[in-house]
Amino acid sequence: MPSGTGRLGAFMAFIGTGSVLALATASAVLCLASGPASAEPPKVTCSLAETPMRDGTLLHAEIYQPATPGRHPVIVTRNPYGLLGDGCFQGGFGSRAAEWARLGYVSILQQTRGTRFSQGVFHPFFQEQTDGYDTIEWAAAQPWSNGKVATAGGSYLGVTEWQPALLAPPHLVAITPGITASDYRDDWVGRNGVPDLLFNRNWGLLWVTDAIRRRMVEQHAAPSEIDQQIAAWTKQAAQNKNWQWSLPLAGDWGDTQVANTGLTIRQLAPQNWEWAAHPTYDSYWATIDVEQQWGKVVAPALVSGGWYDLFSVGTIRNFAGMRAHGGSELARKGAMLVMDCCGHGLPYQSLPGTINWGPDRTNIQSLTARFIDYYVNGVDNGFTALPSVQLTVLAPPDSGTQGDNFMVYANAYPLPGTTYARYLLDSGGHANTRLGDGVLLDSAQAAKGPADHFTYDPADPVPTVGGNDGHTSSQARTLDQSDVEKRNDVLVYTSARLDKSLPVIGPVKVRFWAVSSARDTDFTAKLVDVHPDGYAHNVLDRIVRARYRAGKTSKPKLIKPGKAYEYEIYLGDTATLFKPGHRIRLEISSSNFPHYARNLNTGLSNETTDKMVVAHQTILHDTAHPSFVEIPLAPRSVLPN
């Protein structure tokens, strides 16, 4: 997985255009296997192959081989984004594969089932276990293979690594999944029972483009005709931004005719409707849930991601899960975690209003090459002596938007010596907006103030501004929250100015008591760093749906209007420095749209109904109902001199 601007800058530049086709292309660029890329190197051969699956389906692949005769270790990258210049030595995929071959590996680039030139029907997530297993074992049996196979890739290409690893292919010796999820219901399709609306509607629409291309190729259409049809669809998609407002979520917006095809969006890309049919965690999700099956993975994993990545929670969970529950001693001891700034977001660059986090110091390219050399090629390169946890810590500016970062190295996560500090919510009963009287008290003080109230209207949700969403350049980053904090339906609690640096590294959670007039509703929480110049940047945010308050795998249970319930939101993990003169802030609301789908507050299905009601929300923070944010404080020894 390339790092820094190579992995991500192109991604954000492309998807900022709003083009579905551009998003597909950019995703393909950023999800490529790790390491340096180059032009076509000498003495490398490439051939095309149709790799057979157990059901007879043939998947298209490019096979890059070293010129040196004999048997070689193999690196498999399985890609659903077939729009990035197919053919040997084409684009970033081809150049990277050729580089692996130059280094002595056979590199296989395979197009996943039902995409581009591969046979079958694309069924995201569910097809990758057996197809990946069959590909790995096929590669191990070829005359040019020495029987040792590794996998490489990120994002959905990381899905194609984790899923076959759950079946423990005998010849799989290492995996390197980057910027990818762990539980696809809770860490891809949604968060705590709330659909991740904007990302999944747009990611799902990628497959309309691929379906159009595949159908027209089968009909022997001319390349110019195919290009014209895709251009027409791209224009149509760009003009229909109102799809994110469409209700019901699983409704007839999918019956929109795709121009000149005679087919609908739902027919060409049915995934969103299938997911909506399973809003609750059930056996459908359990079969592909990596978190429930870490004990089946016997190969060591180099896990990498970014703090502002949309799959940051899954990245951390996958590392921790492998350390604790991996299916072999090698898998447990060999797990490694590397975190940069932003993952799918925009790292180490400036766009208007966003923070530039300084240079990329993770060196993920070199680490990946050494990891594979050690576990796959048997090179004694000292890799196991390296710290197994390598974290980028973000240091925001006091004024302006030029930040910086530094690296922290350890062999455990959270870091040894981490303590946890609680900041209690309090107010005079008017915490609405950043101009209100909401405060965060350190745990030595007692919260005594009256409750705070706000109204949540699904017809007028709080807009998404920044955060861990990989869809557009206006959202997948750090942005000033000041305008959002002017809304009366956002409660704002702010600490006193800090008198010393607080290295906050690890998991953050919010626990609070709330009353609603509705039978079901949502609550959001956002951790914010307020700079001395007033810029208030988002650190973490997440959401909880009341009916799933007992946990992500729990059965839905509605709440009683007027009754107080305690909620806990795991906001995710961060590595950031709260500096002297800065203030810690927590926002509480009930929407973050269109990142998250709206709760309609009726207690009915939020997927198949469109009726909505206004909810009157109350946040309690008295002695009997303590509400707080808990942050992890790393030892001060991690601070740079």
Explain the overall architecture.
By secondary structure, this protein is α+β, with helices and mostly antiparallel strands. The chain folds into 3 domains: 4-189 and 284-410, Rossmann fold; 194-276, no CATH class; 419-635, Galactose-binding domain-like (Jelly Rolls), CATH 2.60.120. The chain contains 14 helices and 25 strands. The protein has helices at residues 4-15, 20-30, 91-102, 128-140, 156-165, 185-189, 197-218, 223-238, 265-268, 271-276, 283-286, 312-325, 329-334, 364-375, and strands at residues 44-52, 58-66, 72-79, 106-111, 145-154, 172-178, 190-191, 194-195, 257-258, 263-264, 302-306, 336-340, 389-395, 404-410, 419-426, 439-442, 452-456, 491-494, 502-516, 522-530, 536-545, 564-578, 583-589, 615-620, 628-633. Strands 15, 16, 17, 19, 22, 24 and 25 form a 7-stranded antiparallel sheet that branches. Helix 3 (91-102) links the parallel strand 3 (72-79) and strand 4 (106-111). Helix 1 (4-15) packs antiparallel against helix 2, helix 4 (128-140) crosses helix 5 (156-165) and helix 7 (197-218) packs antiparallel against helix 8 (223-238). The two termini are 31 Å apart.
